Amino acid sequence: MKVLIADDNQLIVEDYLDEMGKVVPHAQCIGTSRPKEVIKLFEEYMFDVVIMDIDMPEINGITLAKKILEIKPRTNIIYVTGYEKFALQSWETFASSFLIKPVSTEKFKEAFANLRHPVSKITAEDVESEYAGENVIGRKILKHREERNMTREELARELGTTVQTISRWENGKRIPDIITFLKLARILAVEPGELMY
Questions:
Q1: Calpha distance 82→176 (Å, rounded)
Q2: Which of 34, 46, 157, 160 has a CA that sits 20 to 30 A from residue 12's CA?
Q3: Looking at the whole model, is its pTM more than 0.85?
């Protein structure tokens, strides 16, 4: 999950960044106290959740939210403001939450538990880990190598790589590139799919 925090007060931004460490500890969180930077940051990171003040100099948070939603319609907007008068207007952007300052950790947790567009907790790193080394491919490489009574040295020599590389694959620290993966399947006399599932 990627979270952007935007408030014209830098101390508030820092406080909210600390709060996110408790609320969504594995999220990638970025904060800015410069409203003019919001769209540029959003285009670069394509955040899942934007926590934003409404009453900011230079540009209103609701106006910013509309621009964000033009870029990525399923963005969760969480408004955090000191003014209840913006509540009705905030729903023009189908906000996930409207919170009045000061905001407790519990209120943030509740907001994240009820996002309008739920964000998968499965990260790119989770996917890579699931299909990398020790979880799938690494175990299969080790199994088929041992079934053929091959040492790591022998396999490394046949592949034209190092023993350390074979070790990293089998320990789940790396995965082979596609060309090497196909060579590996040929050397181990298995179908490529047998090394993946």
A1: 53
A2: 46
A3: no
Which architecture, in CATH terms, is 126-195? Answer: Orthogonal Bundle (1.10)
What kind of architecture, by CATH, is found in domain 2-113?
3-Layer(aba) Sandwich (3.40)
Question: Where are the domain boundaries for CATH 1.10.260.40 in the chain?
Answer: 126-195
